[in-house]
Amino acid sequence: MYAYDEIDRTLVNERVSEFRDQVKRRLSGELTEDEFKILRLQNGVYLQLHAYMFRVAIPYGTLSSEQLRRLAHIARRYDRGYGHFTTRQNIQFNWIKLAELPDALADLAEVGIHAMQTSGNNMRNVTSDQWAGVAPGEIEDPRIWSELLRQHTTLHPEFSFLPRKFKIAITASDHDRAAIKIHDIGLRLVKNEKGETGFEVLVGGGLGRTPFIAKTIKHFVHGRDILSYVEAILRVYNQYGRRDNIYKARIKILVHELGIEKFSREVEEEWQHIRNSSLQIDDGVIEDIRSRFSYPAYEKLPHMPDELRQAAADSDFEAWRKNSVFPHKVQGYSIVTISLKPTGGPPGDATAEQMDALADLAEKYSFGEIRVGHEQNLALPHVAKRDLPALWKALDKLGLATPNVNLITDIIACPGLDYCSLANARSIPIAQELTRRFANHELANLIGRLHINISGCINACGHHHVGHIGILGVEKNGEEVYQITIGGRADENAALGSLIGPGVKFDEVADVIEDVVEAYLALRERPEELFIDTVKRLGVEPFKERVYATR
Amino acid sequence: MTSPLEQKKIKIAGPSIVTANRTWDGIVVYRTAAKGWSADLSEAAIVRNSDEAKALLAESTADDVGAVGAYIAPVQVGEDGKILPGNLREQIRRTGVTIGSQAQV
Fold first, then answer.
1. Which of B1, B21, B97 sits opposite A480 (nearest CB)?
2. pLDDT for residue B105
3. A31: nearest CA in chain B?
4. What 3-state DSSP class applies to B5?
């Protein structure tokens, strides 16, 4: 956990007071909606289909039990008793009243939570690996650098009115769980030949109506130079990024139009002006941030405790353990992913009761810490293996032990037309139907790792371009139509999926996905060949032929 | 279901209303003939041509304190005069999400 200092606490509290005054002036008519819109967006407040939507930041996906309880309180006191975890380590509340928002923000500020950098054309919440600090083989905890960037960019005047929103993600592991290649800037912690910590810097990734996979702009930037290098990129973007056309305003378009070489030269030139400035970070700054992260006092525990050995006889427990429990860097501990994808449920939703209970379980079993992943699941990062059976039983009672992590029903979906004012088609009901179709755990296991991503419009909040199977809802002649892609992925080998054929209607989507899966099961060379590998080996055509032959 | 945020030209093909979200709490409201806002679709003012629609929208937008995000939406008017949403988006706004979860209150 990271402990805010006095500066952070003052800043967050001042922001609450400022927004309270802005809301008061808006409600009295002193501010018009045009004047107010930019102010509310700077505090995470959108206007959606049914009401205002309030998006709260969970920087680098780390929450304490106290903070999660406060989010439950917000859901219960100000909303309809639940929250929705998003693909960018935020949580959204869908029914909040503008008049009550200042009180909600004040309640959050008491536990160091805010909504800055969750919307607007600024530097957004810096995201990271939800296993940061506990993943085996990690270079070092990427949250330290995420926090450095958070501190530098929060309310930074130069980054507050960018041509468009700007997203950074950081990973420190070989396996990318932060989807850095689909971010405006992706940072991968690496060591150079001298053993010094630095970053491979990628730029220009993004989805939406013009998707691009980020390109490496520099293979190694020393850690002490990362602020100046990121700032150089932002300056080039701020100078040349298009402000005349919202659809061409993201940095990915600039990188594409200039070409990575020219863009890189521009950044390099800018960097030379500022790299030896006050932006150069001395070790003391990093050590200060590091010291404000608290790490658990792990016990020395056996690799295979008796409790775990005994529980292995329970097939339900084993099904959950195999899907939800992952190796930890410390012997005797595990990382536990908590699926927010129950059969028939909206992906990423958690009720206030679940959040409260999970906060208690985190205190009991995970040193009071919870993580939020971009896959719209939660994680307990420090669970002693001996506690896994007891934790499983407790999670099962809460409806939080669905054994489907990384399987076909672990679906990422945007809110879609049920909530979002931008959407053209529904996403959540499609996900719900698919979780029912593939609810049989043996079938899901037989299929193996398969990520489905669903977006309800071309803005791609459900990351459909990088789903192993991507589903994009569009509108055609007043009807919802869904385009299916296959072959996308969001990890270190990120790729964009390819269309397999014409769009299909709402009530045909689940049938088509079943056909795609049947085709895969018939086409794979062996059970271990994952869906994504079969698509890579064979291409789209064999799937297209089988799925559309009878349509 | 094209998002009304992309509504560029006002051209209506049938009976329409103006809808928005009430400023203080964000709930869905409809512009009434009495130049006010109502949460009840049956109280919405109906317009039937583009000039009427433009006028109703202009009047609605001017009431910036009462409601925000005003736009024109299609409706169906039954023989008995009952007003129903003209597309799925407006149906969802009127009756709630279609996901059958805790969101339905």
1. B1
2. 39
3. B65
4. helix
Both A310 and A391 in a single domain?
Answer: yes
A169 found inside a domain: yes
3-state SS, one letter per residue, for A180-222 = HHHCCEEEEEEECCCCCEEEEEEECCECCCCCECCEEEEEEEE
Q: Is residue A447 part of a domain?
A: yes
pLDDT in tens, A94-153: 999 999 999 999 999 999 999 999 998 999 999 999 999 999 999 999 999 999 999 999
Listed residues A57, A88, A109: the one ending a domain = A109
Domain assignment present for residue A338? The answer is yes
pLDDT number for residue B103: 47
**Closest C-alpha to B71, from A480, B86, B103, A38:** B86
Domain total of chain A: 4
**Across the interface, do A417 and B105 touch by the CB < 8 Å criterion?**
no
Nearest by CB to residue A49, choosing from B93, B99, B101, is: B93
Structural domain includes residue A69: yes
Of A346, A423, A426, the CB nearest to B101: A346
By the 8 A CB rule, do A94 and A50 touch?
yes
Domain housing A318:
306-397
Output the domain CATH number for residue A416.
Answer: 3.30.413.10
Residue pair A158/A115 in contact (Cβ under 8 Å)? The answer is no
A414, A420 in Cβ contact below 8 A? yes
Test A429 with B98 for CB contact under 8 angstroms.
Answer: yes
Contact A27 B24 (CB under 8 A): yes
CB contact under 8 Å between A99 and B3, yes or no, is: no
Judge if A480 and A512 occupy the same domain.
Answer: yes
Amino acid at A341: K
pLDDT digits (tens, 9 = 90+) for A451-473: 999 999 999 999 999 999 999 99
